[in-house]
Amino acid sequence: QVQLVESGGGSVQAGGSLRLSCAASGSAYCIGWFRQAPGKGREGVATICSANTYYGDSVKGRFTISQANAKNTVYLQMNSLRSEDTAMYYCAATGGQSITRGQTLREEFFKYWGQGTQVTVSS
């Protein structure tokens, strides 16, 4: 079983930066960030699986996912934020087994979820 708690959300101006943290307890092969904007479905943002990282097209080059050494904490560094990045951001984890590359940004392959942290980007 994995428990996840997100933090670091807030309000920033367009072009600014924000770093989200996901504190995880338990064992998981992949931990990912997903987001859901108002009126839109949940979107895979970034996932890290045993040091391998995967990014959604809309954030690649701007966001970076990383994991603390010997710690159950995953970060999402968000730079060059845009108004369209405004969303509730969720941390999620798979179980201990590996998943395929095509599954790393799909929410149905993540078993455990945090409560989310709100990110609001104003222009």
Summarize this structure briefly.
The chain has 123 residues and is mainly β.
Q: How much is the radius of gyration in Å?
A: 13 Å
Number of strands: 11
Gross geometry: globular
N to C succession of SSEs: EEEEEEEEEEE
Q: Percent helix among the residues?
A: under 10%
Q: Average pLDDT value? A: 95
Helix/strand/pairing class, anyone? mainly beta
Span from first to last CA?
Answer: 40 Å
Biggest beta sheet summary: 7 strands, mixed
**Proportion of beta-strand residues:** over 45%
Report the uncertain regions: none
| Total number of helices | 0
How would the blueprint of this fold be written?
Elements: E1 3-7, E2 10-13, E3 18-25, E4 30-36, E5 42-49, E6 52-55, E7 63-67, E8 73-78, E9 87-93, E10 112-113, E11 117-122
Parallel strand pairs: 2-11
Antiparallel strand pairs: 1-3, 3-8, 4-5, 4-9, 5-6, 7-8, 9-10, 9-11
Explain this structure to me?
The chain is an all-beta fold. The chain has no helices and 11 strands. Strands 2, 4, 5, 6, 9, 10 and 11 form a 7-stranded mixed beta sheet that branches. The chain has a 4-stranded antiparallel beta sheet with strand order 1-3-8-7, with no helix packed on it. The radius of gyration is 13 Å and the shape is globular. 35% of the residues are buried.
Descriptive keywords:
globular, seven-stranded mixed β-sheet, 123 residues, 0% helix
